[in-house]
Amino acid sequence: MPVQQIRFYQTGSFAVGNRLLDPEQRSVQSDEHRTNSLTSGHRACQGCGEALGARYALDAAMRATGGRLVAVNATGCLEVFSTPYPESSWQVAWLHSLFGNAPAVATGVAAAFAVKAAKAAARGEPVDDVRVVAQGGDGGTVDIGFGCLSGMFERDDDVLYICYDNEAYMNTGVQRSGATPPAARTMTTQAVGDEPGNPFGQGKNLPLIAMAHGIGYVATATVADLRDLEYKVTKAMGKRGARYLHVLVPCPLGWGSAPGLTLQVARLATQTGLFPVFEAERGEVTSATKIRRHAPVEEYLRLQKRYAHLFSPERRDGVIGKLQDQADRNIARFGLLDGDEAGPTAGPGATVTTGPAATRDEEIR
Amino acid sequence: MDKPFAITLDVGSSRANHTGSWRTERPVYLDRTPPCATACPAGEACQAWLYHAEEGSYELAWRRIMEDNPLPAVMGRVCYHPFETSCNRAQVDEAVGINAVERFLGDLAIEEGWRVTVDAPPSGRRVLAVGAGPSGLSAAYHLARLGHQVEIHEAGPVAGGMMRFGIPTYRLPRAILEAEVARIVDLGVTIRLDSRVDDLGVTMTDGGFDAAFLAVGAHIGRRTYIPAGESARVLDAVSLLRSMDEASTQGLEPPLLGRRVVVYGGGNTAMDAARTAKRLGATDAVVVYRRTRDRMPAHDEEVEDALAEGVLMRWLSTIRSADSGKVVIERMELDETGFPQPTGETEELDADSVVLALGQDVDLSLLSRIPGVEVDDGVVRVGPDLMTGAAGVFAGGDMVPDERTVTVAIGHGRTAARHVDAFLRGTTWTPPRPAPAVTVDLLNTWYYADASRTIRPVLDAARRRATFDEVVGGLDASNALFEARRCMSCGSCFECDNCYGVCPDNAVIKLGAGGKYEIDLDFCKGCGICAHECPCGAITMVPETS
């Protein structure tokens, strides 16, 4: 990994900024002149993880592309709360069409810019290299837009697709999606019967499905680790072809967590092992973020009312145990706990990942 | 109408929608008092100077210390650092070695010749300080910087007081002490050596002083009656330590203690005496103490150092009698109130000499003709402003009721100086009300990288037994910076940009380096993420009232 390691003893490896760092080594979000791709006045709920995640990701993509960026949006919370006609919160070029076709629209936008670039080059004019990001919630990605997305992967179109996963259809009133975790209560998976909440099944793990397409870059991230998220967006924008980024974004409304705990909940999802944070290239996992403070799943579940039925009226140890097993399987599969490799806690001081993550790959594969 | 098909309204920004109206609570920035500031008896704002040290701005950091304490290099060596045990970082990994950083800064200042100046205009008032120990020097320094003319009258032949006569050189090299005292003299403070004040009233009238600060210390070693044979060698610890200093400065022979030395007492002076005896060549240095280790007044660090150097401890024991070559000790038992009671069981211990370290008394004769001064249990009664019963006569250090350490004494000097200054100006000084304390549960420790404390290089125990070289080494520039940066800045914003970054509504305005942040209440929805994710607990949520 071409990253610069900086020793930090106070904070900074984990915090957004640090006055002791050179400005170019600080995060995009610490910059007073960040794009604020999604600006104030949007109608997302208090403590919305998706609003935060979208700004983090697009601001990083704007910096990585020098502002030459178009964002294509699927229908969902992110679209509804940001653009009630005629207002818009977007400060980037932004396009919305239907719920299920964002990957296909993004493919078209990328193709149009490729044609424009080819024509300009043929005329001997300067080529404007405009890049495309498509984004949507988990409903628009793992369910409704899945066919278009799979096609985009299969054709290796030059688009970074970002899924902000809040694990259900939130804006229509918290209905279950293919990304809803087992045992979680939603409006359509009520906490009743012998197996309350969402049934245990195989789930629909889109990062793994994306990897199965053999595309150049697949990664997961959360809103709780800004540095990691910015690093992955920057790295993805340095590559060509189809790329996929899956960002966990807690939803205070649908998950029943306190608005102020959005980052804490996302952090616990990673520290329990329930949400593995990793990178993969061409189908192979290339790195995984180690767990720094390992926590039992119960700490994560307790903060969310969607799991309240696991603790009252009586405690369901069986269900909690099955969720713990799931976390433990992730830990074993992705090697989240063996601490020999350089994780954030290795060495006498922690290290921080900064700087341009990857040199830009100019060749179109 | 020049709009695209089916478009009737102009595009606007969502900033027209003031989501701040949703709010039921608002984030408010505040400063809370870190535990180090509450705990430091010298009144140092540890976190404030560490903030500068983190940037590598060592001179600024040193100047910030000098606002409160004129003796950082001394303090960095002899302070028992009570604040470090209170440090919130102790609950994360290990406490920050504030004391070690302070010593580094103090030494650097001496090396670089940094100076402070008197910026206040001359007040024309004269203040007498009695005693050139830590308290008197500290008061004189602060009063001089406040514009007063200060004269210190010191009974001894050198300045330093107990820092000189009570603290062995292996804990405080004399060159360091002299350099810091010289800096105070350079401010215009006059120190008259060998000038014992016998009658305070006379000295004040003769010298035309408007106020006095008394800090004569506690130099009289307490004796107890021990039946002793004629040839038994019994001496007190204060005299021992004092003669050690005289021996080194005047080239005299150090006192002879013999090969087996028994020290009677359980305070820091007892530890210093036993460690000194070891260095003078004693094969056995045994501390005899009436109670158990946990009840010992000596600081843990000193006890640990003494044990590491081979000093032996006899808990629950008293000395019944002493004779040539031996002492008889009696085993004690603690009763239910924790008081030691004799058991009648005795045993003999070889001893060439017995050193009594049973505490020290204050020579209060200079106050005998001052009306209004009250004495309680051998020490002078003072108010919270450190003024005695006599107007304009203040007192501090070991002669007033408090813990007897250099740190406390320096703190007294600082506090007294402010009250003396107010007295001279006909006003009163009220210490600023401290902000609410910050405990570790108010921090978000996730953001602090794990990093254990830099251990100061400690001279090999075997080596230090034989020499009076300084035992604890200092930090160098790279690990001092490391240590300073371990400060978590509890309760004080250090501009980590977390609040600015984590707001889903862009409702935190970053004001640029040094300017910190402001909440944009037009858009803040009051979710509270900024308060929860603030590493140092400097944001609180306050309910909206209207």
Q: What's the helix and strand layout?
A:
The complex is a heterodimer of chains A (365) and B (546).
Chain A: E1 4-8, H1 49-65, E2 69-73, H2 77-82, E3 87-88, E4 93-96, H3 102-122, E5 131-137, H4 138-144, H5 146-155, E6 160-165, H6 206-212, E7 217-222, H7 226-237, E8 243-248, H8 252-255, H9 262-271, E9 278-281, E10 284-288, H10 297-302, H11 317-334, E11 350-354
Parallel strand pairs in A: 2-4, 2-5, 5-6, 6-8, 7-8
Antiparallel strand pairs in A: 1-11, 7-9, 9-10
Helix pairs in contact in A: 1-7, 3-5
Chain B: E1 12-13, E2 25-29, H1 35-39, H2 46-54, H3 58-66, H4 72-78, H5 82-86, H6 98-112, E3 126-130, H7 134-145, E4 149-153, H8 162-165, H9 174-186, E5 190-192, H10 200-207, E6 211-214, E7 220-221, E8 234-236, H11 237-250, E9 260-264, H12 268-279, E10 284-288, H13 300-308, E11 312-314, E12 317-323, E13 326-334, E14 340-350, E15 353-356, E16 360-361, E17 375-376, E18 379-380, E19 393-395, H14 406-424, H15 461-466, H16 477-484, H17 498-502, E20 508-510, E21 517-519, H18 529-533, E22 539-543
Parallel strand pairs in B: 3-4, 3-6, 4-5, 6-19, 8-15, 9-10, 9-15, 10-11
Antiparallel strand pairs in B: 2-22, 7-16, 12-13, 13-14, 17-18, 20-21
Structure, explained:
The complex is a heterodimer of chains A (365) and B (546). Chain A is of the alpha/beta class and 365 residues long. Chain A has a single domain, classed as Thiamin diphosphate (ThDP)-binding fold, Pyr/PP domains (Rossmann fold). Helices cover 32% and strands 15% of the residues of chain A. In chain A, the strands form two sheets. In chain A, strands 4-2-5-6-8-7-9-10 form an eight-stranded mixed sheet, sandwiched between helices. The longest helix of chain A is centred in the first third of the chain and has 21 residues, at 102-122. Chain B has four domains: 14-31 and 493-543, Alpha-Beta Plaits (2-Layer Sandwich); 35-115 and 450-484, Orthogonal Bundle (Fumarate Reductase Iron-sulfur Protein, Chain B, domain 2), CATH 1.10.1060.10; 126-220 and 362-424, FAD/NAD(P)-binding domain (3-Layer(bba) Sandwich), CATH 3.50.50.60; 225-360, FAD/NAD(P)-binding domain (3-Layer(bba) Sandwich). Chain B has helices at residues 35-39, 46-54, 58-66, 72-78, 82-86, 98-112, 134-145, 162-165, 174-186, 200-207, 237-250, 268-279, 300-308, 406-424, 461-466, 477-484, 498-502, 529-533, and strands at residues 12-13, 25-29, 126-130, 149-153, 190-192, 211-214, 220-221, 234-236, 260-264, 284-288, 312-314, 317-323, 326-334, 340-350, 353-356, 360-361, 375-376, 379-380, 393-395, 508-510, 517-519, 539-543. In chain B, a hairpin with a 2-residue loop joins β12 and β13 (326-334). Chain B starts with 11 loop residues before the first strand and ends with a strand. Classes of the chains: A alpha/beta (365), B alpha/beta (546). β3 of chain A pairs parallel with β1 (12-13) of chain B.
